Every structure is written in C-alpha cells, then in structure tokens.
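[step 3/7] fold_predict: job queued, chain A
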Amino acid sequence: MHFEHEHHEHTHEEVHKYLLELFENPYLDPENGHFYVGYGSTVLEVSVEPYGPEETIVLVTAYCAQGVEPEEELLLGLLELNHELPVGAFSLVGRDIFFSHALFGKTLDRKNLLGSIAAVANVSDDYDDRIVEKYGGQTALARIQDTGGRAKRRSTTSSKVDKE
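[step 4/7] structure written:
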C-alpha cells in the first residue's frame, strides 16, 4: 500500500491496532489497504484516506442495501434522513446504498473509532431491511450469503472470463 505522507501511514497503523483490539478478525485487504469487520448483521469497511499534506480522514462505511430501485421517493427520503441523523450520511452509488461517517485522523482514538463503527452499523441495520422491503435489492449480509463473498465472486468471474 502506498501512503501519501507520514501521518497517513501512522493513522493507518493506529486504525489497524484499534481494530485488532476491538474485533476478533478484522480483514485487511492487501490491494487497497481497507479494513473489513462484521458488527452485528452489518459488514463495515474502514479506510484511511489522505486529506491534505498533513491530515487523514478515517471513513467508516456500511454496505446497507444493494441492487435497489432508485426511485424518487427513496432518494428524497435518504436526503431527509441525512438532515435528521446526528452522525453520518446515506449515499447512493449506482443501485447500492451506503451509510458512512468520517473522522479526522489526528484526533482519532479507540473510543471515537468504536463509537463511529457502532453508529454506522446501528443506522445501517435499522434501515437496510426497510429499504429492501420497499425498493427491492438485498441487504449486504444477504448478498454475501448469496454470492459466497468476495473469493467466490472472484473465482466465478475468473472462470467466466477464461471461458470467453
């Protein structure tokens, strides 16, 4: 993994240390340096991104729902929720809905990271089933169970490519 500056590397190491203290088996993706943890029924991604020459952002993201129908009512509802919720925000990428919260790396401590993880996981867990019920798609957990996770998707994709 390439680090933009010393603080970027330091924050990444701190996040790794905290996640090892807080979770049994945090997964570190060697390709992008992002961490993945399970919290209740939610899968969370924790990334450390450079922010200017001497700061970082720690982004905690939940995969809330995937493959939804992005109807106007849903989009307006998510925007209203973003205004009402005390932390974090929903986003839509393609047909996938995420919920995330950002923290500054220089002031990060174990307690703040855990608080962010808990908040993101709880909000995502509160809304994922409701979103899927009304707008289709799957919760992140259901998607993982159906696809067998990242390794199974990669092997399926590789075998399809090899056959073509």
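[step 5/7] annotate
The longest helix spans residues 110-135.
Confidence is low (pLDDT under 50) at residues 151-164.
exit 0
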